[in-house]
Amino acid sequence: MHTENQWVEFANGQIGRGIINSDGAYQEFYSSALLSNMSASSISWIGTIQGCLLEIVGIFVGPIYDRGYFHALIYTGSLLVVVGTMALSVCTTYWQVLLAQGICVGLGSGIVFVPSVSVVTASFNKHRAIAIGVVSSASSVGELETLPVTHIVLIGKEGGVIYPIAFRQLQPKVGFAWATRIMGFIALATFLMSFAAFWRPTTAKGQKTRSLVDMSAIRELPFMLYILALTVLYAGYFVPFFYAPTYATQHLGTNADLAFYLLAILNSGAFLGRLLPGLLPRFLARVEVLLLSTAAAGLLVLAWIGVEDVGGFVGFSIIFGIASGVIITMATVMVPVLAPPGAVQETIGTRLGMSYFGAGIGILVGSPIAGAASKTAQGDFKGAQIFGGLTLLAGAAIMIYPWITIRRQRRKPT
Predict the structure, then answer these.
(1) Axis crossing angle, helix 128-141 with helix 310-338, rounded to the nearest 10
(2) Three-class SS of residue 281?
(3) Per-residue pLDDT tens for 268-289?
(4) Which residues of 3-32 are buried (b: 16+ CB within 10 A; e: fewer)?
(5) pLDDT at 4 over 60
(6) C-beta separation of 139 from 288 below 8 A
(7) CA distance readout (Å), 229 to 355, 361, 370
(8) If you average pLDDT over each of 8-22, 151-165, 366-380, which comes out highest?
(9) Of 59, 51, 48, which Cα lies nearest the Cα of 357?
(10) Is 219 helix (H, G, I), strand (E, B) or coil?
(11) Collapsing DSSP states into helix, strand and coil, what is residue 273?
């Protein structure tokens, strides 16, 4: 594929991971105002379902992408994100918020996310880690919905760094409804500008029908264990992102403004971490980085138990953010690395969808378990911290066999 075509498709792939990384900011607002009559566990289901749908719909979207319907997926997903955001602005009850933000925006995010990452993964080989790192780093600069490349140029995508701060400043001045509508208008504008980059199909339509699951991949033990590892580690991965603002206010006693900025600091670290694998020397930028980063993230979450002051929590947020960012980038890089020769171009969407499905299951069960294991109203987060740390470490342990398999393949003479 020509280099200029790679970079056009790369621009198409600037998709963030949705509201999931900034859900803690919304959970804090819902708990204190809009949905103050609901428990923290119930409110956490909004972001949990959205994060789950972002990943889990990939198993349906991937085969559609492999058949050549890139444009249809991007347009459909974009429409759902904008409609869901606008609908959220008029929501007043828990179930309305769950349907608009959790389900509608979640579905739209997933429909956009998988083809965007797939096209970058299939287009790049030598510089794949750099390309995926830049694609995924956009979601740390800002995560409210799921927006394309042009947004990072204009305002820095969604809300991981930008939007918790912007929402905090807008909401008291214009109210929740108009603050949310502004996010929706920004989403609409940036989606429309990014459509100009979609100047040709990425694959030809009319290819043979793809199944939701690549049956040949099911017979590959390293790949199936890798999906299991993603399921387990993602159960604990988002615990700090979901509970950072609440931890700051309930356990450390900070004000709500500082809590929002702490979430932005966490996402700033993730921004650096998602770029890091592509910037490392070639002999270091390997899949070993994913295993080590996952183990390090698990140890950091367990060490979080001992954090008792704002300074310590800022340090934890930066370091964990970096480790978490590396995980996001390398988790996608691993899929084509584990695929047999020739399978990347033909079934990359399906294989990515299978991987994201496993991750989505982990997100779906992880945060509610972490919430149930803690007493957040009393400032006790040990249950969530222990659960998050142990699941990350367990995911790293399961990943050892796929890592060994890749090392053996590299040593085989070509």
Answers:
(1) 140
(2) coil
(3) 888 788 877 766 655 554 668 8
(4) eeebebbbbbbbbbbbbbbbbbbbbbbbbe
(5) no
(6) no
(7) 10, 11, 18
(8) 366-380
(9) 59
(10) coil
(11) helix
